[in-house]
Amino acid sequence: MLYAVSDALQPVEFLSAGILKNEDRFLHARRVMDSYELISVTQGLLHIQSGPRSYHLSPGQFVLLFPEECHFGTRPSEGALSFYWSHFRFRSGNPTVCGEQEAERFFREEDHPRYILPETGDFSANSRVNVLFVQLTDLARRMGRHSRIQCGYAQSTLLLELTTECFFRRNLLLRDRDIPPAIASLMEWLQLNYDTALSVAEIGEKFGYHPSYLTALFRRYSGCTITEYINRQRIRAAKNLLTSVQKSSLAEISMQVGISDEKYFMRLFKRYEGITPTAYRKAFSRGKENRS
User: What separation in angstroms does the CA of 112 have from each of 6, 9, 93, 108?
Assistant: First the structure.
């Protein structure tokens, strides 16, 4: 696994962004670029190669294509395909390209913020990266005076979120070096299982803690209750679904994130985001779109 590592004290140079939608038989063009390209697949299967590395990306997976490498589609997609894409450059000169151990060493240097981007990986369903992609593509289609500056900061925020998500467990342990490993594991587990209908008592039994003790311990290290933490993950996942799956109803999205009561879901969403799910969907329903 390769990583691109660069100083994050200044925003990256934004070039372009959008979303590609194709009905069938999409084959990525063969080309060599002088910038990075980040692709996040939301539907279908993308077959692509960059240099000697070949990728087959399904929904929830991403790839970072390196500059000055020839990249091209290896075979046409079958059925509908959709993915977000963006092109950017680092402003701090040539980044370090390294392996996983060195990337982890860079991440542990807390006083020196960096973009640490893996060549490929998976997003959890409640990842914020695609929500940030939607916001970036929305900014990219505007023609205002400061649009490119805004896009540079939006692109940088997306890349920093990608860095954090890829090092999630390490980030928890570094944030508070006294945090019990079991609580770090629980936080990570809840991020992946937020849609599971489990009570605090059942979660406590799974992780070997009395419910009351687990609740107090979790609040101490996370700043919130287990229920609150789960709800935050559910709303993050709902934001992804609202912006990427336009045909799903609010009731369907509510069920997908583990909330059986649609009205409660709407109240919860507004409490966290300040607007209704419908208003949120309308605010980020448009972007630079390619069809091929």
Answer: 10, 8, 16, 9
